[in-house]
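Morning run. Coffee first, then this:
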Amino acid sequence: MHLRNKLTETELILWTKLKGRQLLRVKFRRQYSVGPFVLDFYSTNLKLAIEIDGESHFVKGGPERDAEREQWIRQYGITFLRFTNEDVRNNLDSVISKIASIVKKLDKQNESYLV
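And here it is:
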């Protein structure tokens, strides 16, 4: 499996907000492998995957492949968040707010990973 060394523009925008435990002290990794798939961002402690969907996700067959991939990943108890490039570019505060909300919810379920 080949991992990309370079982030897309929108991945870089989001990564600047996630890296270094900036969001509620949660450690996120980028380009994290789960089976045959690579997630854009992943918190191993919270089992939270975050994907940024670019143009390739909206071509013929793209949504179906994404749904199959997501279903396969979810079978391992991984929570999956999906945002579009436009979400990140135009509504970054909303994206961060949504991620923070899910992090808090998962933290309660995991008995206070966040100190």
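The chain has a mean pLDDT of 86. Good start to the day.
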